[in-house]
Automatic annotation (TrEMBL):
Protein name as it appears in the record: Uncharacterized protein
């Protein structure tokens, strides 16, 4: 059972969703993509996010050792 299937099986599942999002919208989106396409989108989003974090971290810590020292303090 996927997380979406579990959510859909709950009574009053809509109350667990953000305002403006419906269970029908989520189910329609899930049917519109294959598992491979959805996984690719998640991977691309994760790479963008981690790239942004790395760019911000580089401006504060010039190398991995200065980052490690600051975490140890």
């Amino acid at each position: 059972m996927t997380p979406l299937e579990k959510l859909a099986s709950l009574p009053e599942a809509g109350r667990f969703l953000r305002d403006g999002i419906t269970l029908d919208q989520l189910l329609q989106q899930a049917r519109s993509q294959t598992d491979v396409e959805a996984a690719r989108q998640v991977r691309e989003a994760r790479e963008r996010l981690l790239g942004e974090v790395a760019a911000e971290t580089r401006t504060v810590y010039s190398d991995v050792w200065s980052l490690a020292r600051s975490c140890a303090e």
